Amino acid sequence: MARVRSLTRLLLFGALTFSAFLVRLVSILVRTLAPDLGSRLGSACLRIWARGSLRILGCRLEVVGEPPQPPFFLVSNHLTYVDIMVLWSVVPGVFLAKSDIARWPVIGWLTRSVGTLFIDRDRRGDLPRVLAELESTLDQNQGVIVFPEGQNGMGDRVLPFKASTFEVPLGRDLPVRCATITYRTRPPVAPAHELICWWSDVSFLRHLLRLLAEPGFEATVTFPVDPVTGNHRKELARRAREIISAHFVPIVAAAEPDALPPTRLGS
Fold first, then answer.
1. Using CA of residue 84, residue 86, residue 52, residue 194, what is the dihedral sign?
2. Model's pTM, two decimal places?
3. What pLDDT shows up at residue 264?
4. Who is most buried in 38, 87, 98, 105, counting CB within 10 A?
5. 156, 251 Cβ separation under 8 angstroms
6. Domain locations in the chain?
7. CA distances to 131, 215, 232, 233, 236 from 164, in Å
8. What is the pLDDT confidence band of residue 110, given thresholds at 50, 70 and 90?
9. CATH code that applies to domain 58-254
10. How do strand 59-64 and strand 217-222 relate by DSSP bridges?
C-alpha cells in the first residue's frame, strides 16, 4: 500500500510540476507585453503549485498571523525542502537558496525556472553578487525570502543565523519580517524529525519517496506581528533568531540530538 501511494503521488507531483512550469513560461511571455498581469500570473502559478504539492504530500497547513506583502525581506528557520512549498503557498517571494539546490532533481529545475537566487556559501567572493541581486529584486517590488541558518536543522532548535544578507534590509531601512515553520506527525506515522526534516545523508529522491509513502503530516507557519529593526546586521540577525525561536515548537526533544548525526547542509 505504501509503495502504491508513493508512486501515485510521485506521478501526480511530476504532472503538477510540469504543468506549473508551462504556465510559468506563459507568464514570462505575458510579462513582456503586460508586466503587471504577467507578474500576477507567475505568482498565482507558484502559489497553486505549492498548495497542490502540499496536498499531494498529505500536508495539512495551518497559517498563524498575516504574511507580509511585497516588497519585503523575510527570514525563516529551515528544516526541509518542504519549507519552500509551505512559504510559497502563502507568500509571493523570491528565495535565496544554497547553490546545491540548483542541481536537485525536480525542485532544482523548478526553482531555477522561477528566478530563485543562488549563493555559493563556499565562496566568500560570491556575497557581493548576491547582495546586488537581492537589492535588484526588492527594487522590482518583489519579496525576498532567506534561510539565514544556512543549513537544514534536525528540529531541536533554531540554528545560529548568518548575518551577511541582513546588510540588504539594513541599507534600505527596511524592517525584517520573520516566519517560523514547524511540523508534526501522529502515530503510526514516523516522527517528524525523521520523516520530514532533511538533515541526514539520505539522498533527496529517497527522502522524498519515503515522505510520499506516508499518509500525511501537519505543518504550521507563524508570522509574528512585530517586524525586526536594528542598527547593525548582527543585531538584526540576533533579534530575528530570537523572535523565530520564541514561536518555534521543537520537533525533537532537546536531549535527543546528541545521539543524532550532524545536520545536513541545505539551502
1. positive
2. 0.86
3. 42
4. 87
5. yes
6. 58-254
7. 9, 40, 11, 7, 10
8. low
9. 3.40.1010.10
10. parallel
Question: In sequence order, what are the residues at sequence separation of 6 or more whose Cβ sits closer than 8 angstroms to the Cβ of residue 87?
Answer: 50, 74, 76, 93, 95, 145, 179, 181, 221
* Main-chain dihedrals φ then ψ at residue 229, nearest 5 degrees: -130, 160
The residue type of 266 is: G
Extract the runs of DSSP E, i.e. beta strands, from the chain: 59-64, 73-76, 93-98, 117-119, 143-146, 176-184, 217-222
Residue 198, SS3?
A: coil
Residues 31, 147, 91, 64, Cα dihedral to 10°: 180
Using CA atoms, how far apart are residues 25 and 112, in angstroms rounded to an integer? 12
Whether the Cβ atoms of residue 154 and residue 197 lie closer than 8 Å to each other: yes
Question: Cα separation of 144 and 192, whole Å?
Answer: 27
Residues 6+ positions from 267 with CB-CB distance below 8 Å: 78, 81, 84, 95, 97, 98, 100, 101, 147, 152
Cell representation of residue 4: 502504491
pLDDT at 258: 43
Q: If you count them, how many residues does the chain have?
A: 267
Q: Count CB-CB contacts under 10 A for residue 166.
A: 26
Q: Which residues contact 217 (CB under 8 A, 6 or more apart)?
A: 57, 58, 59, 60, 183, 184, 185, 189, 192, 195, 196
Q: What angle do CA 238, 79, 81 make, to 5 degrees?
A: 125
By three-state DSSP, how is residue 177 classified?
strand
- Residue in this structure with the C-alpha cell 511540523, named with its chain if needed: 183
